[in-house]
Amino acid sequence: MIITRAPLRISIGGGGTDLPSYYSRSGGFVISAAINRYVYIALHRTFSRRYMIKYSTQEVTEDIASIKHPIVREAFKLHQIEPVEMVSMADIPAGTGLGSSGSFNVGLLQAITGWKREHYSAHQLAEQACHIELDLLKEPIGKQDQYIAAFGGISCLQIDRDGRVDVSPLRLSDVALN
Predict the structure, then answer these.
(1) I need a labelling partner for 13 at 20 to 30 A (CA). Which of 58, 146, 159, 162 fits?
(2) What's residue 171's pLDDT?
């Protein structure tokens, strides 16, 4: 069994500059902070040849294409995952504006790469999560959620016009941080 967790986030400044429609014209800059609330993902072998997917609902299917959860379906397709049981839990419900889909996506990719005994850097996880949501699913979202879920901390995201993201920790004194 593989269990991962990815943090949710609060946006401190620059939200919206991480959207492709903005950064492709002007570049983007976001300050965001991971918080101590998480999305958890578990992968476990199944005893059948079915995908068993549990989140706010439950799906059981024999093929990846029939999986209704779009992020799960695309991540499993991308990594050619054989039938498994996948369970998702979170400290806070979806739809709160804390980047839960990005955290779900990064946590799922961490679980998948662990399952396959592959190592992905935080940057690779974030980029692949962005690829799934922005390119494959055509979601109208930005990049900060996936990057903060992968890197954690309080970070500055500098986004170039071509979409390349440089991540650096926000340097704060202990007094300012407290």
Answers:
(1) 162
(2) 85
